[in-house]
Amino acid sequence: MHLTGLTLWESLWYSEQMAEDLTGRPPAGDWLGTPFLRFERHGALARCVIDRPEKRNALSAAMYFGIRYAIDRTEADESLAGLLLTGTGETFSPGGELGGGAGEDGWADLARLLFLDHLPFDALRRSRKPVVSAVNGLCQGGGLMIAMLSDVAVASERATFRAPELFRGIADTHYAQILTRQVGPARARDMLVTGRRVSAAEALEWGLVSRVVAHDALIGEATEVLVTVCRTAPDARVEVKRAIDQYYGLYDRMGMERSLRGPEAEEGGRAFLERRAPGWIHPGLPGIDGRL
């Protein structure tokens, strides 16, 4: 932002505004509550961009809430028809940032908000207006859940997918519920218990995403998909979405919350931050160099 030509008071106001944006503040208007998310307007379409390259687009509590807010913001704005979600560079999102605290956003603590309805997943499931994910690269954890629960997920040919929660000591029953219905029990079990990476081609074959396109064409192709979805009859589309949502069903939220508060999740998070293997690994297994 250039301050040339502004009065002293205008310059001071902009300086304060920029300082606030560096730490974050609760959402208001098109501001999503964090400098690491952007809410853009492209005609009748909104776009939420995850932009935190120095942390590989890891989602803080404020960012998770900001994505939910972007969905609700689009829903409530009559000038907008739908929302596109994407990331920057070649990373969509690896999911939540481990380590706790309010982080660089400054106002929302993931550890305290984790058990509240601040996450975007339910908002994706119930949104009347279409939400399309343009998966531009690495996609795992909460990022993968966002992609699966979008109305359509369009992936770059360079995208990769992973569900590493069991390496972090987390019994993610939400994943166990949604992923199983998305790709079938055998493939879901494989992803969940091995933490393997799935290529874009495999993800398409499995039904994890519905389209894979050239990396440089991703935003254009995903935008075209969003426009097409926006042309369908809204009330009828919602009824179809409701039937699909019923197929996904409910997950064992109480079991997952118990796991998140347990010793394995604590050890898994600590091991990740310390870049080492977690202590529950049997000593007779082949050596592991670094974190999983």
What does it look like?
By secondary structure, the chain is α/β, with parallel strands linked by helices. It has one domain (32-273): 2-enoyl-CoA Hydratase, Chain A, domain 1. It has twelve helices and ten strands. Strands 1-2-3-5-7-10 form a six-stranded mixed β-sheet, sandwiched between helices. The protein has a four-stranded mixed β-sheet with strand order 4-6-8-9. Strand 1 and strand 2 (45-50) form a beta hairpin. Mean pLDDT is 88; it is low at 1-20.
Key terms:
six-stranded mixed sheet; alpha/beta; disordered N terminus; 10 strands; 2-enoyl-CoA Hydratase, Chain A, domain 1; single chain; four-stranded mixed sheet; 292 residues
Number of helices: 12
Please trace the helix and strand order, writing H or E for each element: HEEHEEHHEEHEEHHEHEHHHH
Largest sheet properties = 6 strands, mixed
Looking at the overall shape, the CATH architecture is Alpha-Beta Complex
| Name of the CATH homologous superfamily | 2-enoyl-CoA Hydratase, Chain A, domain 1
Instruction: Compute the average pLDDT.
Output: 88
**Strand content of the residues, in percent?**
5-15%
Domains, number = 1
Label the structural class: alpha/beta
Measured on Cα atoms, how large is the radius of gyration? 20 Å
Strand order of the largest sheet: 1-2-3-5-7-10
Shape: globular
How many angstroms separate the termini?
Answer: 41 Å
Number of strands: 10
Low-confidence stretches: 1-20
- CATH level 3 topology: 2-enoyl-CoA Hydratase, Chain A, domain 1
| Fraction in helix | 40-55%
- CATH secondary-structure class: Alpha Beta
